[in-house]
């Protein structure tokens, strides 16, 4: 274990959710039985925290409100360990399944639950399965109106559950009238003529030397890597759910390699939380701390800024 932690230059994020929350296996029947499924989140978090501690690394945990209600002690443990708690919404529903009103209620409920549990302002949001798209243009303004400082939902690629092809792939600021929001897109790169997300299933599916080479390309551009994983990806022994071959392959491929892959990433790159790495967001958090209240998205920051 390292004795002195260096200033991180890249961002590591986890979506804190159970294996049965995966959108690819979602159905009304499965949702009805969420509370009866055996939770595995305690062992997931324990293992992830152990690996992060070994490398003296902090991360941002986008956390599901439903999960936080069921297991508040897990969320407190992550927060007490010095990691950032951010919001993944309440019910793990794709944004397109919401109306603007129900989306607002969902994220407001989750934010309140997480703040009550941790005693800290929750300033970051990510849509379940990164599901903000060009067909839900109302979502990001609502995120800003609800007091979040940043979003990390927009994949600038073609994706079956989300994605906005052509969107800015680097950290940048968005604004609507009196409200503003920093967008922190998960990292993407052009590979063989296609833009892919360097996170989630690709962290498991790609050969590690290839993955390291791709991440090094981002680092060479003097841009922060924004890596993301789901907490259940650390668990190769999770119960198998049945669906199409494609869905099963994407969910279960190389789960047994995730822990080793995470060790390798943390040894080769210096990661931290979103608030820790992104100066502009860190300064806004300080403003929030000084004021004692979220300022409803109205912040004195320059427009048209890309990191």
Describe the structure.
The radius of gyration is 18 Å and the shape is globular. It has a single domain (10-291), classed as Glycoside hydrolase/deacetylase (TIM Barrel, Alpha-Beta Barrel). Strands 1, 2, 3, 10 and 11 form a 5-stranded parallel sheet that branches. Strands 4-5-7-6 form a 4-stranded mixed sheet, covered by helices on one side. Strands 8-9 form a two-stranded antiparallel ribbon. It is 37% helix and 14% strand. It is α/β, with parallel strands linked by helices and 307 residues long. Strand 8 (188-191) and strand 9 (194-197) form a beta hairpin. It is built from 12 helices and 11 strands.
Topology:
Elements: E1 10-16, H1 28-32, H2 41-54, E2 60-63, H3 65-70, H4 72-80, E3 84-87, H5 100-118, E4 124-125, H6 139-145, E5 150-151, E6 172-176, E7 179-183, E8 188-191, E9 194-197, H7 201-205, H8 208-220, E10 226-230, H9 245-252, H10 258-268, E11 271-272, H11 274-277, H12 279-291
Parallel strand pairs: 1-2, 1-10, 1-11, 2-3, 4-5, 5-7
Antiparallel strand pairs: 6-7, 8-9
């Amino acid at each position: 274990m390292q004795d002195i932690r260096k200033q991180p230059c890249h961002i590591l994020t986890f979506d804190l959710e159970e294996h049965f929350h995966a959108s690819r296996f979602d159905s009304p029947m499965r949702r009805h039985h969420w509370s009866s499924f055996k939770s595995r989140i305690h062992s997931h978090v324990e293992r992830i925290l152990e690996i992060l501690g070994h490398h003296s690394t902090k991360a941002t945990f986008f956390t599901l409100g439903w999960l936080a209600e069921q297991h508040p002690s897990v969320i407190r443990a992550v927060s007490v360990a010095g990691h950032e708690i951010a919001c993944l919404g309440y019910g793990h529903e794709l944004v397109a399944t919401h109306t603007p009103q129900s989306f607002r209620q969902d994220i407001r409920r989750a934010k309140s639950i997480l703040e009550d549990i941790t005693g800290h302002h929750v300033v970051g949001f990510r849509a379940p399965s990164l599901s903000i798209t060009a067909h839900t243009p109302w979502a990001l303004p609502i995120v800003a109106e609800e007091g979040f400082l940043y979003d990390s939902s927009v994949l600038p690629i073609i994706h079956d559950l989300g994605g906005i092809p052509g969107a800015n792939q680097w950290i940048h600021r968005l604004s609507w009238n009196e409200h503003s929001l920093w967008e922190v897109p998960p990292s993407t790169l052009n590979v063989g003529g296609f833009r892919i997300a360097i996170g989630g299933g690709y962290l498991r599916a790609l050969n590690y030397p290839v993955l390291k080479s791709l991440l090094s390309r981002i680092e060479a551009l003097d841009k922060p890597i924004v890596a993301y994983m789901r907490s259940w990806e650390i668990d190769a022994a999770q119960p198998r759910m049945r669906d199409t071959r494609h869905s099963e392959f994407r969910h279960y491929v190389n789960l047994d390699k995730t822990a080793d892959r995470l060790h390798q990433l943390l040894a080769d790159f210096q990661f931290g939380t979103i608030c820790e790495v992104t100066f502009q967001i860190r300064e806004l958090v300080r403003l929030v701390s000084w004021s004692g209240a979220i300022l409803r998205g109205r912040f004195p920051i320059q427009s048209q800024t890309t990191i």
